[in-house]
Specification:
The protein contains 14 helices and 19 strands. With about 525 residues, the protein is an alpha/beta fold.
Length: about 525
């Protein structure tokens, strides 16, 4: 059974203007001819323009090794806007107005002369578009050139502001390192050039509307926060499953795997937001500090018993949504004997007053039954069911389910009596989803994050210390797995919910995975 939540009209209103703190600026996109720029960054900026959320004084400068010029860049990005700018109307006048803001320079990421030319172009562009010397440097490049770009920006002085009202910010895409050591090295290289308040480590999961709503749900509703602790919560499950496989990304995935690709960033971010204590104020420093406290309090996994705390898997052939798909080792450009995990599951404990003794189960995988990301807060069972007709342990406990994707929203599951002369207990759900409630889908994550970068709001971005604590938890597991190849890969069929070892991981505690 399901009940929809209907809002009171007076409550559906914006309480903070989206343009607050927004100033004219130029965004420099390194890797401007790449797929991320074409599919995500430029269409998101166009959408912001169409929604009236871009400042009038704004420009984009593309920098890449491709031998393009400004005319070619504008043509290519105009085509990208028409293909990928969903949710808004793309018309000739607005598209022309947008591409006139675009400029391009070809150069190498380790060539000082090319960066001198970039600095000269930015001076010209800033005057032409009245950007006031305010620059965002967006590294949409392979991680291998992050340090080159940062060092060259520092060498030509582009990290420094010249006027009191100008600023410089750098945006870095994941993966942020491969392990703890490489993350620490990259953090040090950034810190040599940019201060921490200038640095935005982007994770598109944090731009999703439901993820942002987690703290509002908890802290703006007095009925939930008192229950958000070890006294009432039995356990928490965080699932991020994909129905697709690696989709021609074998080169990346053979180096990465599920643990690096999903856990160090996306899943541990969700974990931190769900488990953190309320911040003193809602700003980047206070929220970031509470998220760091969660990772500091997380119990390290004992590597001598790793199989009781962490599980890995790799998909074999199977059926997904009625179509036959090949196994990971049969995918193009993968090693026929690959030991790379496409599935992982963890059990974590937080050693603090709020969560002592409450397990957090995290899992993520490719080629699974369906695409879904959700957080389930599973409450404890009632100690005794008074009605006598049904044993308490045969009924599902109450749960709050936070759907991150698809169909973003929340669900509260509880029990009621069904009509009739006898007492029969049924589970029902009260559901809230953005699309039906607010007459449309939530804005794409990149729009939210780009707007926050231009406004100087770092609340939804990872702090250097959080990054290192996250890698500190994950790196020992990765190293243990890489030093001891799995003997049973592939160990789950494509189209399933993962390997039986994952079911055993949670079953040893007397629990079971949800089937979203």
């Amino acid at each position: 059974m399901s009940m929809q939540i209907v809002p009171q009209a007076a409550e559906v209103k914006e309480t903070a203007p989206a343009l607050r703190g927004l100033e004219g600026c130029a965004i420099v996109i390194f890797g401007a001819t790449g797929d991320l720029t074409r599919r995500m960054i430029v269409p998101a900026l166009y959408n912001l323009q169409q929604r009236g959320l871009l400042p009038d004084d704004f420009a984009i400068v593309g920098f890449s090794r491709s031998r393009w010029d400004t005319a070619i860049f504008r043509d290519e990005m105009q085509a990208a806007v028409r293909e990928f700018a969903g949710g808004v109307t793309v018309d000739e006048d607005s598209c022309k107005q947008f591409v006139e803001r675009l400029h391009y320079i070809s150069g190498n990421y380790n060539n000082g002369e090319d960066f001198q030319q970039l600095a000269a172009m930015l001076n010209t562009v800033s005057r032409q578009h009245n950007c006031g010397g305010r620059y965002v440097f967006y590294l949409s490049t392979p991680p291998s050139v992050y340090s080159d770009v940062i060092q060259q920006l520092g060498a030509v002085g582009l990290h420094q502001t010249e006027e009191s009202d100008s600023w410089r910010r750098v945006v870095i895409e994941k993966p942020f390192g491969r392990d703890l050591a490489t993350a620490q090295t990259l953090n040090a290289q950034i810190a040599d050039v940019f201060a921490e308040p200038q640095t935005y480590r982007i994770d598109h999961y944090l731009g999703k509307e439901t993820v942002q709503n987690i703290l509002v749900f908890r802290l703006a509703n007095h009925i939930f926060e008192p229950l958000w602790n070890r006294r009432y919560v039995d356990h928490v499950q965080i699932t991020a499953s994909e129905s697709i496989g690696i989709e021609h990304r074998a080169g990346y995935y053979e180096e990465s795997g599920a643990m690096r690709d999903m856990f160090q960033n996306h899943l541990l971010q969700l974990y931190s937001l769900v488990a953190m204590d309320p911040p003193v104020v809602f700003d980047a420093e206070a929220v970031g500090a509470e998220k760091i406290k969660v990772l500091r309090a997380t119990r390290p996994i004992p590597l001598t018993q790793i199989d009781q705390w962490a599980v890995r898997g790799q998909y074999g052939p199977g059926w997904v949504r009625g179509e036959y798909v090949q196994g990971y080792r049969e995918e193009e450009n993968t090693d026929p004997q690959s030991n790379r995990e496409t599935f992982a599951a963890l059990k974590l404990y937080i050693d603090n007053w709020r969560w002592e003794g409450v397990p957090f189960y995290l899992r993520s995988g490719k080629s699974m039954t369906k695409k879904v990301t959700e957080i389930a807060i599973q409450f404890k069972r009632v100690p005794h069911l008074l009605f006598g007709l049904t044993p308490a342990d045969t009924l599902n406990p109450n749960a709050i389910v936070i759907r991150v994707q698809p169909n973003e929203g929340f669900s509260l599951q509880f029990r009621v009596k069904s009509p009739g002369q006898t007492i029969r207990v049924h589970q029902v759900s009260m559901n809230f989803d953005y699309e039906s409630l607010f007459n449309g889908e939530a804005p794409p994550a990149y729009e939210t994050l780009l707007l926050d970068i231009m406004r100087g709001d770092r609340t939804l971005f990872a702090h250097s210390e959080w990054i290192e604590y996250a890698w500190g938890l994950i790196t020992p597991i990765i190293e243990a797995w890489e030093s001891s190849p799995a003997s049973n890969f592939p160990n789950y069929e494509a189209g399933s919910w993962g390997p039986p070892e994952a079911d055993a991981l949670i079953a040893m505690d007397g629990r079971s995975w949800r089937r979203p």
